[in-house]
Amino acid sequence: MANSWGFPGNDNNGQPTGTGFLGSLLTGMAQGMQNQSQTAQNLDFLKQSRSQELVAGQLANQSNALKLQQQHAELDQAEAVNNFAKQAFSSPGDVAGNTLAGTDNSTPPQQGQQIAGQMTPNAPRQTGTTPNPFQGGNDGPQAGGQQGPAGGTQTGTGMLPGTSTSGMQPGGSTSGFKPMGKYSAEQYAEWDRKYGFPPGKSYALLATESSGGVDNYNPQSGATGPGQILPATAKHAGYGIPDNLDANDPESGFKVLKGYVDAAGGDFNKGLAYYYLGPKAAQQPGALQSPSMQGYLGKNAKYTAQYNAGMAAKQADNTPTPADHVETQERAGVTQTPVSMGQAVDAQSRMIAGYERAAQNAAAAGNVPAAQTLMARADALRGQQLDLAGKRNSVQKSANEAVATLTAGVTDQRSWDAALTQIGQNPAMHSALAGLKITGNFDLDRPAIATLASRTQTLKDQQELQIKQQDQQLKEAKNAREQQEFDRKQVQEQQARDTAAADKQVIAQQEDQRRTANLASGMPYVPGYSKTLPQATTPAVAAKVAATNDKAWADRAKGTETAITGAKNVAQISADIAGKVRADPSLVGGGITAFQAEHPWMLNAQQQEILKNTNSLVVEMQRSAPPGAQRSAATAAMGKVFATTKPNLSLKPEAFIDLSDNLYYGAQAQVSMDDWMNRFHQANPSATVEQGRALYGQYERSLGAPYWTDKDGVQHINRKSVARLPDGRDNPEYVSPDSYFSNVK
Fold first, then answer.
1. 3-class secondary-structure state, position 129
2. What is the DSSP letter of 264?
3. Which of 210-219, 362-371, 420-429, 662-671 has the highest mean pLDDT?
4. What is residue 15's DSSP assignment?
5. What's the rounded Cα separation, in Å, for the pair 246 and 224?
6. What's the CA gap between 285 and 262, in Å, rounded?
7. Are 202 and 300 in contact (CB under 8 A)?
8. DSSP string, 472-536
9. Nearest to residue 389, comparing CAs of 331, 475, 328, 481?
10. Do residues 434 and 129 touch, judged by C-beta distance below 8 A?
């Protein structure tokens, strides 16, 4: 008969009676309490994955694509674009939401199948039983099931943290995904939301059409802008698309595509065909199956996958893990149970496997940086898993000790209730109840309490040994991981040293080659940064020094640009007017008065031309006056001569020619100096502007005084730095700087 507690009892003959309501509840307490606890503790872990599974399932249904985009417009973009993560954290057999498996109508099936074939499914879930030490047969689940030292309970993957199931090695985090072109990933995400596109499609359009370009122009078709829009389309495309679009506006391409997709009934591939072929051509039989169209769709799908992989990688570091949740709960004072910890370890294992699959998919999509980031995230989670598994073992051990202590100390109904509650919350102790016909009534159950206490003590001792073994394995795994990290850093440091040594050797060889080439050409050799900067100089400092020096040369070029143009004009004008007077000395002097010069109509045509050129000389001389430190010696002498006397028609022919020649030599000397400075900088990139000026000044001083005065008191510019005479012939007095420096020891 049933007792007042409702638990199964015995009749007067000692035979078991039926089970009352409360008795059935206690008999099924192990399973019932486990399910309730599991539901409560696993809620946080399931919320995100269920949301992702919902999104994935809807994405698989092309007919609901537009409806899905409207319903989820307010979802966090991280969840919306994380196609790789959705695939990775859903059931291994469920690829409904995998845009790379061909269910997204933007992906050619062949490509999707090829990529999906590289997925690594979750490790098989393992369950196991152990013979009940108190009864024959397999009468209860073994605590923890079959697992590795860091695996979860019963549903654990059995994956040992610190090892990779994908065959890929974790790399450094390179999650700074940057799309090609000028627009950011966040800008493309905003455009996707604005126009209702699947994630990554706005980027794929511009990347496919113009590599994200802004001012692209196709002279053959006339297509313009980031979206390569034809003039006729921009003017009037129809299909509800606004007229008079600005082809250089990236959103114009999105407006056209949006109109075409709507016209195609929401079929994105058909919309792309309208965009690529034109609406009429796209509706012809076989148009979508043409090689060019398939190539266009494949390229679009590739860029879509690359974008989504990059966005998934960007979000990886911000995604909370089960280990993070446990830590948060601990800080909040939440007491963990064996069930909750087992679920956390399980969830962590699944997340690790998910990131590894996501990394493989990213690599298959061609986004290697994203793959490296995802693998690095998986590796970091494996490190967390070691600590999480240790916490799980500690919680399990404490729970076992609590059960053993409580059952051994049962003295009344209250202590008996506490013991049964602890057993119900500890699946590892459920097998101790097997065959004892516990009712929950202290008086009725008293004969079985001693047996239960013995069993719980035995289970505690058995599992304590198992936990010790697992803790030892965890310790070894941590040590191996630390050693692996140490070895990795050692290898990286050695590689860095080897690379630096190789770079240094290459730089030394380049320096030797440059020195040899300079000496052979007569150009001074100035040691490069590798020899002039201190050995402890960091690359950043060296780059800053180089940038500062490059700017100084750029400033010099900009500062002398006008002066060099003026000097070239002075040299040309001076040579021209001197040549005219040499050919006809009567054009100047001979009684030409200042009055005639002031009234050009009194002069002949050639005299008027000379007068015009002499007036131009004044302007060009002003332009040809660079800052003093940037003048050649001959140019400075030319300025002094010009300040004293300017070419004019009243000068005697000899004086006019001498003065014009002096102006030519002075101006040409400045041009020669500028040409040499440019060649010097090209041959010695690390040399400073001041070093170039100093060396050229050394060359000029070797030529003698910048000007000299003849017996008649006429000053003449030193012409040794000018290669050509005013009439174009070689200057026999010319001494080139290359010749000079070739002979300087």
1. strand
2. T
3. 420-429
4. -
5. 9
6. 20
7. no
8. HHHHHHHHHHHHHHHHHHHHHHHHHHHHHHHHHHHHHHHHHHHHHHHHHHT------HHHHS-TT
9. 475
10. no
Q: 214: pLDDT confidence band, cut at 50, 70 and 90?
A: low
Task: Kindly state the DSSP code that residue 724 receives in the 8-state scheme.
Answer: B
As a 3-state breakdown, the chain gives helix, strand, coil percent values, each rounded to 5, of 65, 0, 35
- Structural contact between residues 542 and 529, judged by C-beta atoms closer than 8 angstroms: yes
Q: What dihedral do alpha carbons 283, 284, 286, 291 form, nearest 10°? A: -80
Can you give the three-state secondary structure of 133-162, one letter per residue?
CCCCCCCCECCCCCCCCCCCCCCCCCCCCC
Give CA–CA dist 630/431, Å, rounded.
Answer: 97
367: left (phi over 0), alpha (psi -120 to 50) or beta: beta
> Does the model's pTM come out above 0.70?
no
Residue in the block written with tokens 């969830």: 347
Q: How many CB atoms lie within 10 A of CB 240?
A: 11
Its CATH class, for the domain covering 185-302, is mainly alpha
Question: pLDDT band at residue 489, thresholds of 50, 70 and 90?
Answer: very high
Residue 721: both structure tokens together: 């730095």
Q: How far is it, in rounded angstroms, from Cα 603 to Cα 596?
A: 7
Residues, the chain, total?
745
* Residue-wise pLDDT tens digits, 393-438: 999 999 999 999 999 999 999 999 999 999 999 999 999 999 999 9
Domain with CATH 1.10.530.10 in the chain: 185-302
Question: What is the Cα–Cα distance from 215 to 224, expressed in whole angstroms?
Answer: 7
| 384: number of Cβ within 10 Å | 20
Kindly tell me if the per-residue pLDDT of 392 is higher than 90: yes
- Tell me which amino acid residue 667 is: A
Structure letter (DSSP) for residue 719: -
Retrieve residue 401's tokens. 């000790």
Residue 432 contacts residue 399 (beta carbons within 8 Å): no
